[in-house]
Amino acid sequence: MKFAQLDDTIIRLQPDTYQHLSVWRMAARREKVRCPLCDAPLRLSAGISFDPSFLHPEDQLCEWEGLEAPPAELLAAHTEPHIRQAFSVMAEVAVAVEKPFTTADAEIAASVAASASAEAMANTKAVGSAEAGAGAKTVASAEAGANAKSVASAETGANAKSVARSEATAGADRGASAETEEVMLGSFRIPKKRSIQSESDVNRTVPEPPKPPLYRKRLMPKKTIEHLAVRHEEQLHPHQKEAVQTTEGPLLILAGAGSGKTRVMTARTSHLIRELGLSPRQIMVVTFTTKAAEEIKQRLARQLPGGQARELVSGTFHSIFYRMLMFHQSDRWDQRKLLKKDWQKWRLLRESGALAAPPEIGPRKESEILEALAIISRWKNEYLLPEQAGHRVANDDAERLAQLLYPLYEEAKKRTGWFDFDDMLIGCYELLLTHPEILQRYQERITHVMIDEFQDINRIQYETVKLLAAPQNNLCVIGDDDQSIYGFRGSDPQYILGFTRDFPQAKTITLEVNYRSRSSIVGLGFSLIGHNRARWQKDCLSFHSEEGETYLFEPGDEEEQAARIVDEIRHRIETGTPIGECAILYRTHESARPILEHLSEAGIPFHYTQEEDSFYQRQTVRWVLSYLRLALNPDDSDSLKEILPTLYISQEMWNALRSQAILEDMPILHVLPKLEHWKGFQRKHLQSVGEVLAACAACPPAQALELIYEDCRLRDYLKKRSKERDDRRESWSDELQQLLATAKRHEHVAGFLQYMDRMANQEKEWRQQQPLPGEGVHVLSIHRAKGLEFDHVFLPDLIEGSLPHEYALDAVRKGNQAALEEERRLLYVAITRARYSLSIGIPRERFGRKTRLSRFISEMGR
Ligand SMILES: Nc1ncnc2c1ncn2[C@@H]1O[C@H](COP(=O)(O)OP(=O)(O)OP(=O)(O)O)[C@@H](O)[C@H]1O
């Protein structure tokens, strides 16, 4: 149904009220949104492809379910003018669910409030609450009103001031002016300059209400794509067939996304064996992932008799090269000596004494060493040996450090027998180069080489392949320069772009028909990628004439974005989509967390490969949660111990503190300021921390967090710490905001803490227990999605700083466009994974800050 009751008010779902969806969703979670007829708690279902509605519980039959408009008699009981009603509803909901408005809500509320008469305002319930009207100054957002109110009601008058202060900072962050004097009106603050005394004044000064967020819009491609004119009855398009049947000499297959590379590779291998009589042992097929190699083998197994497919030399570069090394030099390449992780390399450097050797290195942070190791790895992939790298002109400090460390790292490995992945590539190349007899054996045995995803090859891989393929050079490379997304690992699209220079006799075949995606999806991808300069110009045709679904949606923030995606997935599953055909592809892991939490809450199984450390285990998150735990239990010594560094208390003081607590038989938090050791200002601060935490226990969790960030000075501490560590990413700030966003969904601190504990435990399960293939939604990074396809694809956070990523924007500011081109290719890969529908999320706020639309949106569509 399209309406519901929230306390005494009838709320209606129609385009001009959609901006309240996130608030109403939260009220619904607390069972405050009910059916006016049967009083059942209603769920808000607001996905992407359909308009929102309120739903009864599945087992509740009600004759109003599905009703579009409230019956007249119901409306008659709610006669307030629309504007006043909207204001009142928003104010009430904000207080009822203790959910501060987003900035967008606040702006709308402020302008709605200002456009109604002051008198009308005075009549609304929210106006006149003494504590809210305390005349707090300089708060820029309506959030502050709600906060000030709940803090005051928790009888922490002193804190109201500081919450207001912290909100002012947050408001200023989001671009609102914190300088303007304001007055309280209900839960809202209106700039004092805007008189609310007379209607005519109001009319003169009222700003236009901001554009309401877009619920959903069809995104049409800038460039129209033609459809394949002639449908071919056969399994292969004539160009695909030509690629399959061209078996002698070098061959470059330039293939657009979804144009059938995997199909061609399988058909070509099968053709070589079945038609030309080659043994599978003569064919080497290199794929980018082990999974892709397996897929080709499985497809071949269906076509070839008796286990022949298993004899094919196939796999990733690393796996094939490693097998060769093990065969010829097994003692040198013992797998137990493989440095798989960066921290192992760092430890090796540290323990070998390399870091202490040359004085130029000086004391270095772990992050600097790891950055230098990444540069070393890139150099090795480019086959730049230590001496050559040492002669390069270093671009920055990180490269200078890498130049110093490179020979030391190589020396340390040599001495101890350890090796890394890059050594395997170099090892194989040098083995073939220095042992002509071994090379000749391979050259005679392997007569045909095929390489998939050639756009992501690096120099050392390419040089090795050239050795193996010689002298016949039956080398078939397949790739799409537009899908080159591993620049940071030393891959370079220049190799695919320069293949015909290296092999002038090479034949080039272009596959231009996209068989995978519906036409508007193909069009969006093609329009976008056309903005890259460093690429082969290709035409693009769509096999399918149906348009498909391409949506932009604009949720208030990342939480609402996650809720919308999950509602849409639930709807798709209910209408028959297999669950494994839905995929959420993200640029960075921060985008995944709210989505995983919402999927978990909705009980929808998902596949997720954790690539980074757990959000819930990060130091900043642990500190914040420990503060909250201490607020609930001042005797929680583990939590106090955890936050000691943030209070500038050394571990030595810990014993004194514990003894004192036992002596005085008092909670440890209460003993804290009493120790004799403290200087005046420190004692004062510790005293205030105790008081603030006592107040936090009674606050809604979002307000409690604000108090901890500001009044316990956790934000100051984190800022200082990150400056000292020269941490340019400042990820702590995003972490604080993510916690705040999650806290806003909870009513009580205890409930929020329980939820976070549950998520932390579930996250461990997410890592270990994956649903069976096809039985879960896929949540994966765009990098990992390469080569895959799904019916419905969701792309969250298409905003500046996320995609394109901040580091690419930084590079652009320094005049380097290459990173931006790689970001564009990443988005191209993401778009072209979708068969039927593509939904792009643009949250208006993220991490509590206003966002800007990704520049890529206007490049691809309108
Ligand atoms: N000739 C064809 N007729 C019908 N369907 C085809 C044909 N060629 C390929 N397809 C289908 O198109 C889809 C994309 O094919 P495939 O995965 O081989 O493309 P790809 O070029 O490897 O894609 P990408 O590089 O984007 O990962 C698959 O579902 C495949 O079955």
Automatic annotation (TrEMBL):
Domain (UvrD-like helicase C-terminal) ranges: 519-787
Keyword tags: ATP-binding, DNA-binding, Helicase, Hydrolase, Isomerase, Nucleotide-binding
SUPFAM superfamilies in the cross-refs: P-loop containing nucleoside triphosphate hydrolases
Catalysed reaction equations from the record: ATP + H2O = ADP + phosphate + H(+); Couples ATP hydrolysis with the unwinding of duplex DNA by translocating in the 3'-5' direction
EC number: 5.6.2.4
UniProt keyword Repeat present: no
Pfam family, one: UvrD-helicase
Residues covered by the UvrD-like helicase ATP-binding domain: 234-518
Coiled coil: none
A GO molecular-function descriptor: helicase activity
Region (Disordered): 149-214
Entry keyword tRNA processing: no
Amino-acid positions noted as binding ATP in the UniProt annotation, renumbered to this chain: A255, G256, A257, G258, S259, G260, K261, T262
Top-rank EC class of the record's enzyme: isomerase
Family the entry assigns: Belongs to the helicase family. UvrD subfamily.
Protein name as annotated: DNA 3'-5' helicase
